[in-house]
Amino acid sequence: MTADTPRSPATLGALDGLLTALDSGSVEIVDLTNRLSSATPTLRLPEPFQNLIDFSLETVSAYDAPGPFWRHANIHTGEHIGTHLDAPIHWVSGRDSHDVADIPVRRLIGPAVVLDFSAEAAADPDFLLEVGHVQAWEAEHGPLPAGGWVLYRTGWDRYAQDQEAFLNTDDTGSHTPGVSAACAAWLAGTDIAGFGVETVGIDAGNAAALEPPFPVHYHLMGSDKYGITSLQNLAQLPVRGAVVVVAPLPIVGGSGSPSRVLALVPRGA
Ligand code: MN
């Protein structure tokens, strides 16, 4: 937008109001993103499946002979590493839909609600969210937001610096909370933009055993919706009233991307 692009007073007022609110603290920015390094916990698929590489930083110069006045590095990473977005083409059910570069940016900013099932997940790491849970939540807190994000709080972010605890794997698989197949299908029929979780993926650790396997991936990606994973700090968000900004890299042909996820949160004056 150039300086002489016509804008209505209402538009100017909204943006001025946002900046004033950020300066005064009446709107706070909460970073929902896990810091990205070679130590960031990542998915470990069992044999015979192939895993992505972890993130790493390869320094090329650091104010030395290869670059005396600058520091720069190559990054090496899989798409689905750390806090990241799943685009529709990530799953076979969405293979003809958008890649991460083609997601309409308008859909990456929207209202968020937080469904807190951290007590249930603490009691049972295999806890699955059911349709009845969401409907009971809606009866208490109102409908899921059109064009918005459902953020599923399980308390799993407390393990986000510990690969073993984060995946919680034993000889019967990975035990992390998720969503039932029926609830995944139900969510896909709503008009939300996406579903965010604190765990390593948008499905439960043992979701390969569900029908269809990995039902949140299957139903959401197949309905032009998005997933975001490895979120943190959901405990700092209100049940509703936050606005989430999801910023994946526009990787052409990409099935996902590490993403910065920020929440704008109103605070009482
Ligand atoms: Mn993913």
Major beta sheet, specifics? Answer: 7 strands, mixed, barrel
Bound molecules: manganese (II) ion
Which fold name corresponds to the CATH topology?
Glucose Oxidase, domain 1
**DSSP strand content:** 25-35%
State the shape.
Answer: globular
Considering the protein shown, what is the CATH homologous superfamily? Answer: Putative cyclase
Number of domains: 1
Q: What's the total count of β strands? A: 14
Biggest sheet: strand arrangement: 4-12-11-7-5-13-14
Explain how this protein is built.
About 20% of the residues lie in helices and about 30% in strands. It is α/β, with parallel strands linked by helices and about 270 residues long. The longest helix has 16 residues, at about 10-25. The chain is globular and about 55 Å long. A hairpin with a 7-residue loop joins strand 13 (about 240-250) and strand 14 (about 255-265). The strands form four sheets. Strands 4-12-11-7-5-13-14 form a seven-stranded mixed β-barrel. The site of manganese (II) ion has 7 residues, from strand 4.
